[in-house]
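Quick start: what a row looks like.
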Amino acid sequence: MSSIMTSSTRRTRDHFEPQDSDPSEVRKLRGLMEQIDYTAFISNREVIGSALSVIDPSTFQRLAVTVATARTKWVSEALRLSESGSPVTPDQTARLTAHRSAYEELAEAYEGLRRMVERGYITLR
């Protein structure tokens, strides 16, 4: 089983990989799996497309600026802590962790939105 490394997690591919068996059974199973994948595609396109119907390049720009701002806050906080020369307190660590978490979540949302466009679930206006 292969995996995909994203910016913060490792995801396991779970697509169908037939075992060596009767070729006609493998073809039949592949056909069924393609139908399932197509059903998932149509479902994603309908649900996501209706929920996120107003996506345009400015939407990506706003989200990208939000991600960049969150990254800047995270790194700025780390730099501020390093400049003090004092040991980092648990409260400071928690604040730094919150900044990192916000950045990572926003970055994943950006990538998720990009994948939705790439896969045809939504179209840019």
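That is the whole record. The mean pLDDT is 89. The two ends are 37 Å apart (CA to CA).
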